[in-house]
Design a protein that fits this description.
about 190 residues
Length: about 190
């Protein structure tokens, strides 16, 4: 079994929201509290390994959880959020207002969507799934601490609509999803 968890909250996750991508902000105080609660929530899952993105917000979350479970997180850059190019560090509202055609394309997402100056969702999906293959070869159950977009591209791999379903899955900060053997996603209890 693999559990996927989104990192705790950062300043970019609260209004006015910013596109973070590969920006590297730390967790805020609430994010550190969420990470501690995440550690408590997965303590009964028998987690044998923790994997994390290299980005600070995910690494910090994984380190807090790892301290609670006495596990050292393994860092894998392929678990990072999508590289969002020139949108990184910009306010969501500004992009929506200043680049309406690009914003509309983002709202449709899909395999063909590419962040301006960044990577496509299909590229993000390929690297995230490759990382997940390595997680499966290690000790299980495993907890993978990553990002909302990373969780969405992984979930979209088995969705009938593929990456067109990217925006259908809500992934709040510190949310946990369970990947079962049939590649179905369910919220972890």
């Amino acid at each position: 079994m693999i559990l996927l968890a989104r990192h705790g909250e950062t300043a970019g996750n609260v209004p006015p929201q910013r596109f973070q991508g590969w920006r590297d902000p730390p967790l805020n105080a609430r994010g550190r509290e969420q990470a501690a609660a995440l550690g408590a929530a997965v303590a009964t899952e028998g987690v044998a390994a923790i994997w994390t993105s290299h980005l600070r917000r995910a690494r910090e979350t994984a380190e807090i959880v790892g301290a609670a479970l006495d596990l050292a997180p393994r860092v894998d850059e392929r678990l990072a959020e999508s590289h969002r190019g020139r949108w990184e560090d910009r306010l969501v509202a500004d992009i929506e207002h200043e680049e309406p055609a690009a914003w509309e394309a983002w709202q449709r997402a899909g395999a063909g969507f590419r962040f301006p100056g960044g990577e496509s969702l299909a590229e993000h999906q390929r690297r995230a799934l490759a990382a997940l293959d390595d997680v499966r070869r290690g000790p299980l159950p495993a907890l993978v601490v990553c990002h909302g977009g990373t969780i969405r591209v992984i979930a979209a791999a088995t969705h009938p609509s593929g990456l067109d379903a990217f925006h259908e899955l809500a992934v709040p900060n510190a949310a946990v999803l369970k990947l079962d053997g049939q590649e179905r996603w369910t919220p972890a209890a």
